[in-house]
Design a protein that fits this description.
- With 428 residues, the chain is α/β, with parallel strands linked by helices.
- It has two domains: 248 residues, Aldehyde Dehydrogenase, Chain A, domain 1, CATH 3.40.605; 144 residues, Aldehyde Dehydrogenase, Chain A, domain 2.
- The protein is 42% helix and 18% strand.
- The chain contains 14 helices and 16 strands.
- A seven-stranded parallel beta sheet has the order 10-9-11-8-7-12-13, with helices on both faces.
- α6 links the parallel β3 and β4.
- α1 crosses α8, α2 runs antiparallel to α5 and α2 packs across α7.
- The N terminus is likely disordered.
């Protein structure tokens, strides 16, 4: 008698089947028309709105489990869906549908002296594996962006958001069905078995062309260490806001509050405030008191401690930490060059901002800070594909290969060369 298969064997078989279905679907999607893809997205948005009560009921299960497990408030906020957020997700699908179709776009063309005509043309990547944690909205964003770019998607959400992700995914499948596209174009891994992640990282026998991790440091590190396929890296969001001596404090105070406190659990939240110690007048006090009064814990250097007794002395590892909570590190620095040096040492090349009215200082910061997103007089919380006009994002890529910054539809394509001749042969 054969021994029963291990759970891992069952998971491996399941994932191989998902990979094969995705590979077949990707061939169909590569030739899908813009009309077909847009119809699927619009139908999915309609299905999502209609399924709001079902999605909310599923989300309650995830929220209750997260609270019972003692998850922090910022984690629960990332997980939470309400009617407004679901409506926003549906609107996001419609906005993605309205974007220009990137597939087939001619990026460059030229003719050689021998008469050969060259075109560099956008094409889909193929099949994208997205591994993410505690964000059910990513199920819709990742699936929709992949579809728009002509790719199949294999989605593996975190166990904490499983019920919510299943409900959202059902609406996406309904949209695919309505448009006559293969349902396997967007697949959600149905098991929370961690072995499924390992199978994806091994590429599912060549089915997966790229992996996109979206989650905490542990997840991203595992993906980068174990993946046998290319990865769009997304490191920690250790974002800085620097208030220069040339700042307008009427702008700086509300901007810093927004950058930190609008949503503390997003990767674009400012985790470290840098303040120019050369500023004429007291810049530090209104910034520190504004944050404290808004309920933010401050871990500061000696100068910051002097401002208010509620400030805690920063430990060395507080600089370079992603808090994802109502906590911020504060440090005084020696001008814009001090800020640039600090960011180079402690930042994660994600998103960094300067507040100043001096154009020369702003340009120095823009040119010398080597991050995926660098802002002047704007909140770091604009680190979001939707705010860039991309309709959404799969994540913020902090690497420098292929994609950097918000990963939207264009970043989910590659290119190929089309060469047309009329009998040319290469001479010896």
């Amino acid at each position: 008698m054969n021994k029963p298969e291990r759970i891992d064997d069952d998971t491996a078989k399941l994932m191989r089947g998902i990979g094969e279905a995705a590979k077949a679907a990707s061939r169909r999607l590569a030739i899908a028309t813009a009309i077909e893809k847009n119809a699927a997205l619009v139908a999915a948005a309609k299905a999502l709105r209609a399924a709001t009560p079902k999605i909310l009921a599923a989300n309650v299960k995830d929220i209750e489990a997260a609270k019972a497990a003692g998850r922090p408030a910022a984690f629960v906020d990332r997980l939470l869906l309400d009617e407004k957020r679901i409506a926003g997700i549906a609107t996001g699908l419609e906005e993605i549908a309205e974007l220009p179709d990137p597939v087939g776009t001619v990026l460059a063309e030229w003719t050689r002296p021998n008469g050969l005509r060259f075109q560099r043309v956008r094409v889909p990547l193929g099949t994208i594996g997205i591994i993410y944690e505690s964000r059910p909205n990513v199920t819709a964003d990742a699936g929709a962006l992949s579809l728009k770019a002509g790719n199949a998607a294999i989605l593996r959400g975190g166990s904490e958001s499983h019920h919510s992700s299943v409900a959202v995914h059902d609406a996406l499948v309904e949209g695919l069905r309505a448009a006559g596209l293969p349902e396997a174009a967007i697949q959600l891994v149905p098991t929370t078995d961690r072995a499924a992640v390992g199978e994806m990282l091994r590429g599912l026998n060549g089915a997966i062309d790229v992996i996109v991790p979206r989650g905490g440091k542990g997840l991203v590190q595992r993906v980068q260490e174990e993946a046998r396929v290319p990865v769009f890296a997304h490191l920690e969001g250790i974002c800085h806001t620097y208030v220069d001596q040339g700042a307008n404090m009427d702008i700086a105070v509300p901007l810093v509050l927004n950058a930190k406190m609008r949503r503390t659990g997003v990767c674009g939240a400012t985790e470290c405030l840098l303040v120019d110690k050369n500023a004429q007048g007291d810049f530090l006090t209104p910034l520190v008191k504004g944050l404290l009064d808004a309920g933010c814990e401050i871990r500061g250097d000696a100068e910051t401690e002097k401002v208010d007794p509620r400030v805690k002395r920063a430990a060395p590892d507080d600089y370079g930490k992603e808090f994802l909570d109502a906590i911020i590190a504060v440090k005084t620095v020696d001008g814009v060059d001090g800020a640039i040096d600090h960011i180079a040492r402690f930042g994660s090349q994600h998103t960094d901002a300067i507040i100043t009215e001096c154009d020369a200082t702003a340009e120095r910061f823009l040119n010398r800070v080597d991050s995926a997103i660098v802002l002047v007089n704007a909140s770091t919380q604009f680190a979001d594909g939707g705010e860039f006009g991309f309709g959404g994002e799969i994540g913020i890529a902090t690497g420098k290969m292929h994609a950097r910054g918000p990963v939207g539809v264009e970043q989910l394509t590659s290119f190929k060369y089309k060469v047309r001749g009329n009998g040319q042969i290469r001479p010896k």
